[in-house]
Amino acid sequence: MPRVVVDVMPKPEILDPQGKAVHGALPRLGFTGVSDVRQGKRFELEVEGPVTDEVLAEVARMAETLLSNPVIENYTVRIEESVEVQA
Amino acid sequence: MPRVVVDVMPKPEILDPQGKAVHGALPRLGFTGVSDVRQGKRFELEVEGPVTDEVLAEVARMAETLLSNPVIENYTVRIEESVEVQA
């Protein structure tokens, strides 16, 4: 079944306390070399039928009204390609 | 600066109440044609220096110990390509 992915991230100018907490925890766990972390949300939508431009536009409306807060978050909509699963 | 993305999603056999809530809200907002929704997390890590295989392996260890709960979540690690921003 086709899958559409919506990524929702805090806008660059918005503070991201979750990302900051992760960034602060990394050196305490012995991890180095990461200069910044941002945390957002990922939605995977299973769509009935083929993923047309109309479907992607409809998903963009869902992202704008339900999945994200456009005041503080950006979103991207894309069709999922093959993903290298690592775990 | 190179960016590494870690996507963390609930395992397929694990209930996903957040995704279920989103899925249930869509028809109430007039959206149809979506048969399932899963919600997970997306982390964007800014890495110092080039993204080598060692860096990706280190990020995978971060994902396993800090960013995900391996009992109930899967993660993927990848280098971010160009993204079509929609908002």
TrEMBL record, chains A, B:
Enzyme class: ligase
GO cellular component labels: cytoplasm
Entry EC no(s): 6.3.5.3
Gene Ontology molecular function terms on file: ATP binding; phosphoribosylformylglycinamidine synthase activity
BP GO terms, sorted: 'de novo' IMP biosynthetic process
Assembly information from the UniProt record: Part of the FGAM synthase complex composed of 1 PurL, 1 PurQ and 2 PurS subunits.
UniProt-recorded name of the protein: Phosphoribosylformylglycinamidine synthase subunit PurS
Species the sequence originates in: Nocardioides dokdonensis FR1436
Gene responsible for this protein: purS
